[in-house]
């Protein structure tokens, strides 16, 4: 939780020793930093305000969102520093690396492992939805492992595109093409359901290693998504349980009203029961 509701204006480098870069985005970079007094390591997202230009409202939004949330599977914003040119978001350091990198490194990977990851993501997204927040940019790059240990939890990072729902249903095209829900592409009004679609895309990728909708041509990709046209291709899906396919089918449902909510998805036996198989699918 943000102990300091006020943004701090002192020089961040007096408090933190800024170290190497952990990641980079379009107008920000994330760096490792160490508290000079306590020696505690944190991740600091440094945002150059100038690069934002007219998108500053988006940034204020990211902060407003982060300030409100406290959940085990969502990155914790500890402090905020602001200068005239820069904004620094001090986050709890997560050290386990990105979801897909870690899965690729593992020799053994099962439906049970995938089910556990998706269950944690759904729990966090349900929490956001209950608070009236739509994440809108759920994708594997924004899912990090908390620690290097095998039993590490998953943490959602990056709220750059999330938006308070009660500001009205907006229909700005945003997000990453491969994860965008049909109603977003069709510029219809949309809501929480777009996140559930994205969870469906992530679940699909976790089980076969490639995305359900893909084409080098964006128009063709859009066409596939708008029709919710995907397959469980042989041989990749031959050994995957019917339960897993049923689960994905309810999330990759074109009609947002018929699509599973987080609540419904969490109740599906592939998440809450014992239908997720324990055999290696790597
Ligand atoms: P962007 O808006 O630039 O995509 P992200 O918040 O997604 O920003 O961060 C970019 C990268 O920085 C992530 O993919 C991850 O590798 C790293 N990162 C972000 N937050 C943390 C954190 N709390 N702890 C460790 N690494 C992080
Ligand atoms: Mg990101």
UniProtKB/TrEMBL annotation:
Belongs to the protein kinase superfamily. It comes from the Eukaryota. GO terms for molecular function: ATP binding; protein serine/threonine kinase activity. Keywords: ATP-binding, Kinase, Nucleotide-binding, Serine/threonine-protein kinase, Transferase. This is Calcium/calmodulin-dependent protein kinase type 1-like. Residues 16-271 form the Protein kinase domain. The chain holds residues 3 to 284 of 334 of the full protein. ATP binds at residue 53.
């Amino acid at each position: 939780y943000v102990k300091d509701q006020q943004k701090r204006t002192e020089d961040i480098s007096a408090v933190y020793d800024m170290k190497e870069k952990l990641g980079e985005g379009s107008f920000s970079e994330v760096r490792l930093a160490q508290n000079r007094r306590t020696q505690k390591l944190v991740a600091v997202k440094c945002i150059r305000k100038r690069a934002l230009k007219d998108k500053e409202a988006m940034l204020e939004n990211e902060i407003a969102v982060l300030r409100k949330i406290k959940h085990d599977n969502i990155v914790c914003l500890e402090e905020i520093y602001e200068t005239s040119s820069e904004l620094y978001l001090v986050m709890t350091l997560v050290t386990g690396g990105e979801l897909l990198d870690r899965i690729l490194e593992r020799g053994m990977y099962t439906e049970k492992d995938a089910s556990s990851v998706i269950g944690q993501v759904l729990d966090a997204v349900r929490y956001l939805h209950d608070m009236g927040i739509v994440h809108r940019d759920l994708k594997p790059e924004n899912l990090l492992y908390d620690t290097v240990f095998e039993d590490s939890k998953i943490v959602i990072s990056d709220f750059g595109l999330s938006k308070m729902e009660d500001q009205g249903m907006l229909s700005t095209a945003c997000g990453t093409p491969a994860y965008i829900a049909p109603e977003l592409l069709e510029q219809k009004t949309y809501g929480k359901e777009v996140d559930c679609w994205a969870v469906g895309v992530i679940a699909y990728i976790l089980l076969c290693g490639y995305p359900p909708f893909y084409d080098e041509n964006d128009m063709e990709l859009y066409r596939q998504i708008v029709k919710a046209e995907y397959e469980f291709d042989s041989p990749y899906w031959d050994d995957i349980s019917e339960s897993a396919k049923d689960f994905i089918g309810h999330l990759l449902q074109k009609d947002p009203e018929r699509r599973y909510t987080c609540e419904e998805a969490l109740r599906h036996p592939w998440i809450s029961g014992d239908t997720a198989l324990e055999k290696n699918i790597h």
